[in-house]
């Protein structure tokens, strides 16, 4: 029998850096990210896997960190919204959200951006339907979604324009 | 949430031994269990994490396919062995939940997922499934999402899985391991109707673990389709769904599968609907007859009577779409 009150060591990668923390058996990945590592981008919305505000990317897959016991993340590679920009340079998706009104109150934004980044890494030229499907697990109560879909599609345009410009320059 | 201990097992035999302990719950994808633990519906003292067990492969099995119990819903839905040969299974999986939940949820967990009945999910409410003999407030309460088929005076909770509906239509077999060795349970026997013991939902015994699911080749597997009707276009449980499959040759239906979801207490094979199709040309007339046969014996209640007509039309539409797309 394992003691439910005993903290256990946990080591995993967050945004490319290995972290070591002691966590309670019942801590969720979301708790460790927010409380122990002070990465407060992931939000607790519903805490039941419904809203996607806590979404992070674990081993290249978008997941809800509120449903993952932290100890399950042992050895995993986790990406949070804090690791999406490169230094001060925002990701195309982040820039597009700013420019095209994809973010309002901001609670859903980290999860939305990660869902979009996760989509574009697998499918760089999504249709609007692909975007809708990929973002279906992320609820937003402000935007009405249209500006979010538009932002993601604009981010693709930016990436494609840059790609063809660099090809032309070659 | 009630405090619990956590441990991770990497071997099946150790994991099986842990299952004999009191208060142990197995954890796979976490999308049902963690949620129910938060609500106080499940209160295990120890969670044994199975995710590291080597049960994740999807591979050819004779002419059919074998799917590891820990394969995620995403992995199954997009797998080349599944997407082409068993379209109904891919479609059913992709109609369920959201991308991030499908990335987490496992095949074994999907088979074992618990009902969305709001009385079951509220620990302050009576519920025969949660607490035997406490009563079923859904019978005369708010029952819009509840079942019209396979119901009893103890329980009218629907089975929420889309995947299981498709697997039943494909004659899949669930393979389980326990202290007494391995056994194979046909999908049709895996889920059980509530009767007077709604707490018993499946043929899985305490201490057993689902290892894999096999899906055989069949003459109708490739011509198969899933239609799901819900309150919004995505990310919602079915009000009604249908998995249909047809083997048509010489302009006549040789064999058929019609399975309903969202309207029954378990994935519901409608053999009377199948009988309406076999031996006839695949026409709208026989599709409508199949729809009508599928809901024969339905027991509607105050808020879910609409499901009788909805299920009828879901079956007919699924068959029409299937023939149209082939």
Largest interface: A-B, 34 and 30 residues
In DSSP terms (H or I, runs of 4 or more residues), the helix count of chain A works out at 5
Order of helices and strands of chain A: EEHEEEHHHH
CATH topology of the domain at 224-325 in chain B: Enolase-like, domain 1
What is the structure about, briefly put?
The complex is a heterodimer of chains A (170) and B (326). Chain A has helices spanning 29-36, 92-100, 109-122, 128-134, 146-169, and strands at 8-14, 17-23, 55-58, 61-64, 77-79.
Structural commentary:
The complex is a heterodimer of chains A (170) and B (326). By secondary structure, chain A is of the alpha+beta class. Chain A has 2 domains: 4-83, Ubiquitin-like (UB roll) (Roll), CATH 3.10.20; 92-169, DNA polymerase, domain 1 (Orthogonal Bundle), CATH 1.10.150. Chain A contains 5 helices and 5 strands; from the N terminus they run ββαβββαααα. Chain A has helices spanning 29-36, 92-100, 109-122, 128-134, 146-169, and strands at residues 8-14, 17-23, 55-58, 61-64, 77-79. Chain A has a 5-stranded mixed beta sheet, sandwiched between helices. The longest helix of chain A is centred in the last third of the chain and has 24 residues, at 146-169. Among the domains of chain B are: 1-52, Uridine Diphospho-n-acetylenolpyruvylglucosamine Reductase, domain 2 (2-Layer Sandwich); 224-325, 2-Layer Sandwich (Enolase-like, domain 1). Helices cover 28% and strands 21% of the residues of chain B. Chain B has helices at residues 12-18, 33-39, 73-78, 80-83, 87-94, 99-104, 107-111, 163-169, 187-190, 271-277, 284-294, 306-325, and strands at residues 5-8, 24-27, 46-49, 58-61, 64-68, 173-178, 181-186, 209-215, 224-229, 240-249, 252-261, 268-269. In chain B, the strands form 3 sheets. Chain B has a 5-stranded antiparallel beta sheet. Chain B has a 4-stranded antiparallel beta sheet with strand order 9-10-11-12, with helices on both faces. Chain B has a 3-stranded parallel beta sheet with strand order 1-3-2, with no helix packed on it. Chain B is globular. The termini of chain B are far apart. Chains A and B meet through strand 4 and helix 4 of A and strand 1, helix 2, strand 3 and helix 6 of B.
């Amino acid at each position: 029998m394992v003691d439910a009150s005993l903290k256990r060591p946990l080591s995993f990668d967050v945004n490319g850096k290995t972290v070591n923390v002691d966590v309670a058996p019942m801590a969720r990945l979301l708790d460790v990210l927010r409380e122990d590592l002070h990465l407060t981008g992931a939000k607790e919305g519903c805490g039941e896997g419904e809203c996607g505000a806590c979404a992070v990317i674990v081993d290249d897959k978008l997941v809800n960190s509120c449903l993952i016991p932290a100890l399950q993340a042992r050895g995993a590679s986790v990406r949070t919204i804090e690791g999406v920009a490169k230094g001060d340079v925002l990701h195309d998706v982040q820039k597009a959200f700013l420019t095209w009104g994809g973010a309002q109150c901001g609670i859903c934004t980290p999860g939305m951006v990660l869902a979009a980044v996760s989509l574009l890494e697998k499918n760089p030229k999504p249709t609007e339907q692909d975007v809708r499907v990929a973002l279906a697990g992320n609820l937003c109560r402000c935007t009405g979604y249209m500006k979010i879909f538009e932002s993601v599609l604009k981010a693709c345009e930016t990436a494609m324009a840059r790609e063809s410009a660099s090809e032309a320059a070659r | 949430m009630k405090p619990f201990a956590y441990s991770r097992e990497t071997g099946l035999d150790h994991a099986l031994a842990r299952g004999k302990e009191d208060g142990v719950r197995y954890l796979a994808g976490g999308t049902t269990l963690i949620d129910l633990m938060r609500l106080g519906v499940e209160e295990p003292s120890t969670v044994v994490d199975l995710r590291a067990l080597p049960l994740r492969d999807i591979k050819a099995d004779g002419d059919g396919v074998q799917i590891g119990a820990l394969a995620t819903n995403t992995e199954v839905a997009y797998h080349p062995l599944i997407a082409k040969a068993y379209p109904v299974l891919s479609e059913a999986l992709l109609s369920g939940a959201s991308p991030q939940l499908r990335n987490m949820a496992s095949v074994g967990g999907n088979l074992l997922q618990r009902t969305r009945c709001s009385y079951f999910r509220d620990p302050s409410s009576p519920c025969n499934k949660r607490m035997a003999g406490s009563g079923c407030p859904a019978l005369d309460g708010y029952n819009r999402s509840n079942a019209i088929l396979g119901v009893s005076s103890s329980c009218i909770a629907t089975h929420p899985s889309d995947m299981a509906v498709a697997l039943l239509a494909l004659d899949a077999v669930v393979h389980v391991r326990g202290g007494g060795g391995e056994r194979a349970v046909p999908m049709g026997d895996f889920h059980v109707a509530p009767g007077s013991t709604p707490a018993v939902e499946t043929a899985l015994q305490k201490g057993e673990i689902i290892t894999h699911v096999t899906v055989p080749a069949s003459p109708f597997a490739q011509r198969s389709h899933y239609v799901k009707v819900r309150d919004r276009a995505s990310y919602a449980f079915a009000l009604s769904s249908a998995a249909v499959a047809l083997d048509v040759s010489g302009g006549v239906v040789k064999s058929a599968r019609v399975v309903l979801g969202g309207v029954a207490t378990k994935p519901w094979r409608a053999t009377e609907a199948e009988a309406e199709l076999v031996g006839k040309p695949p026409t709208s007339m026989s599709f409508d007859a199949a729809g009508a046969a599928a809901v024969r014996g339905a027991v509607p209640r105050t808020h879910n009577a609409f499901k009788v007509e909805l299920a009828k039309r879901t079956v007919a539409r699924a068959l029409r779409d299937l023939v149209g797309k082939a």
